[in-house]
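Collaborator request log, item 7. Partner lab (contact: R.S.) asked for a structural prediction of PhzF family phenazine biosynthesis protein to inform their binding assays.
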Amino acid sequence: MTTVPYLTVDVFTTTRFEGNPLAVIFDARGLTDAAMQKIATEFNYSEVTFVLPPEDPANSARVRIFTPTMEIPFAGHPNVGTAFVLGQQAEIFGKPVGDTLRFEERAGLVEVILERNEGRVTAAAIRAPQALAIGDTITGETVARCVSLDPGVVVATTHAPVFASVGLNFAVAELSGVEALAAARPNLAGFHEAAGRQTTSGHDFSLFVYIRAPENPWNIRARMFAPLDNVPEDPATGSAAAALGAYLVSLAPEADMNVRITIEQGVEMGRRSIIALDVTKSGGIVTDVMISGSCVSVMRGEITLRD
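Returned to partner:
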């Protein structure tokens, strides 16, 4: 019998069964691409990670990230959760685990800082692997159709709906208030139409909608929908949060800023998540984005590949 061990964690939370679940295959040597995709589809989490020895021995590991339908170059909660899992090991592929890990990923090198409490890893912070990139704008009507809302609740005061990325591309759009956010429901036909129009996303159309109050603009409430990737709604999306945070800081009038942003997500799903972002802007350009959050262990087991 051939088996592969795994661990699952809930990410961006300190409460088990909240946050965003992640499965980590912490030694994926010998698995084919097809096997990785089948395992990710079987879990049906928004992402599953597969940990391999690094190509450069100076780094900690090579990490591959799969959704239920495809491999993606980068994502926030998989990196935070994978670092949490590996940080609890004495060593990774024969190397001692320190307080900083370096993951080789398709989007580039991801640096992770482990946070410990009395020697035990409780959280992790990752640096976005790419600079902020802004793509095409999207009509409010397209956004509204995707989430079954009236176009009038799509707000364009600060920015029009647009693609943004710091490693993985998302459509980001502001809504008028908590009522509109709560009423959002994914419309598969709308997502198919939106995906057919766009040319810059690099993967299926994923939509991050959010609200924020003028008196506290760096506290944000959000939801993320990606039904074309078999993720009708995601309870915590670090890569989308980081892209949005970097974009909003880039639009602020100050040339130099260090901003802590808190993004609450997953409330409507009963899986409340808290994503912390630290965004640095220098000379009018966003130069650094850190994504951090807590994790809690949930399950461990084995996947049977062959009897």
